[in-house]
Amino acid sequence: MFTGIVQKLAQIKELERDENLVRLSIKLDQLSAGLELGASVAINGVCLTVSEVKDGVSHFDVIPETLATTNLDLLSSTSFVNVERSYKVGDEIGGHLVSGHVGSTAVLKSVHHEKHDRVLTFQIDEPWMKFIFHKGFVALDGASLTISSVNRAENCFSVSLIPETLARTTLGLLESGDLVNVEVEAQTVSIVETVERVMAERE
Questions:
Q1: Strand 104-114 versus strand 80-85 pairing type
Q2: What are φ and ψ of residue 88, in 5° steps?
Q3: Which domains, and CATH codes, for the chain?
Q4: For the chain, is the Cβ count within 10 Å smaller at the N or the C terminus?
């Protein structure tokens, strides 16, 4: 589990592509302290398993299923990624609980500057919109955010970002057309699907 509070904006050190595997090497520096093989780390919100740690560089193997359902297949050796180590009991939860299981991706449709914040508007596949609510939680590339507005007619939602978030995450590097990984809030999913099931049974 994770909290959606990005701990490091890290640049990929090396990216190796094989027929059925992509291997990411990321220099985590102090975040690699005490990191063991098999540990879980969120990379752009995707829960990945550590396969090797050496000299502050951590390695992760990414399989085709993950590449097909996230934006990790779009990474290059110069890309930056959001990094968060797994939550430990007693840690402060500054965002919301995130599993690292990305459900979908969303495309950045527009960026609007509004005084000290920046409003990013994303479009997502229609089936996921039922889990998107004004003032609800969503994790974008692993960053816990509050939804500032929803446009159901266009399957769009917006988030408003302060300068600190823009500076500490990949969200400040996005351009129109870029994809982000989306994990909707688990409690919202549970409530919506329960209501749908109850209503279907009544019919």
A1: unpaired
A2: -115, 145
A3: 8-85 (2.40.30.20), 104-202 (2.40.30.20)
A4: C
